[in-house]
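Subject: design request, 191 residues
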C-alpha cells in the first residue's frame, strides 16, 4: 500500500505557478520547484509526472485563480465601464510588487522558443477566450448604442487583447504606471 500524500495539491500548484511565473519554464529547475513546493522529488514525480505536466497544471491553476478579472467584462453594465474596470485591475496586478512580473500566460508565450503543443494550445485558448470576451462586450456596447455601430469591433477586440499583453511586457521593464493608465484611457476614448 502506497503512502498517503500529505500536502495540499492546490497549495503546491500555487507555489509551482509562482516559480514558473517568476523564472519562466526554461529557467525553472526541478530543485527550484522542490524548494518552493516543499516536496520530495518522488512526491513531485508521483503527483505531476514531470516538469512539463506540472507547468501545464500550473497554467491551468493560474487560469482558475485569475478568472475574476474576466468576470468584469462578462458582468459589466456598460462596455466602457467593463473595459475600464478590467484594465484597472489588470494594471494593478501588473505593477503589484507582491506578484511576479507581468502575467504567467504572456510570459509563457514570450519565454518559450518552441512551446510544447499542449502549452501552445493553452496559451492560444487563453488569448482567444480573452479576445472573445472583449468582442462580446463591445458587441453589447454597439447594441445599446454606447459604441458607434461603424466601429470595427473585431479590430477593437484584437487591439484590447494586444493592449492587455503589452501591459504585461511593459510593466516588467518600465515601472511608470501612470503612463500605462494614460494609454488605457486613450484606447477607451477610441471606442
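Subject: RE: design request

Done. Sequence follows.
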Amino acid at each position: 500500500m502506497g503512502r498517503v500524500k500529505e500536502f495540499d495539491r492546490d497549495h503546491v500548484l500555487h507555489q509551482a505557478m509562482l516559480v514558473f511565473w517568476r523564472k519562466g519554464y526554461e529557467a525553472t529547475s526541478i530543485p527550484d520547484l522542490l524548494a518552493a513546493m516543499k516536496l520530495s522529488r518522488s512526491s513531485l514525480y508521483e503527483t505531476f509526472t514531470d516538469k512539463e505536466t506540472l507547468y501545464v497544471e500550473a497554467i491551468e491553476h493560474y487560469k482558475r485563480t485569475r478568472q475574476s478579472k474576466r468576470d468584469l467584462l462578462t458582468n459589466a453594465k456598460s462596455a466602457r465601464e467593463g473595459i475600464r474596470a478590467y484594465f484597472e485591475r489588470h494594471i494593478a496586478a501588473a505593477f503589484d510588487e507582491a506578484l511576479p512580473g507581468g502575467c504567467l500566460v504572456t510570459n509563457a508565450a514570450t519565454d518559450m522558443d518552441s512551446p510544447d503543443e499542449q502549452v501552445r494550445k493553452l496559451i492560444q485558448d487563453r488569448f482567444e477566450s480573452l479576445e472573445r470576451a472583449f468582442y462580446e462586450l463591445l458587441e453589447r456596447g454597439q447594441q445599446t448604442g454606447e459604441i458607434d455601430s461603424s466601429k470595427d469591433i473585431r479590430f477593437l477586440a484584437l487591439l484590447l487583447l494586444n493592449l492587455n499583453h503589452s501591459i504585461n511586457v511593459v510593466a516588467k521593464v518600465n515601472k511608470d504606471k501612470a503612463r500605462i493608465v494614460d494609454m488605457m484611457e486613450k484606447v477607451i476614448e477610441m471606442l
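The chain has a mean pLDDT of 90.
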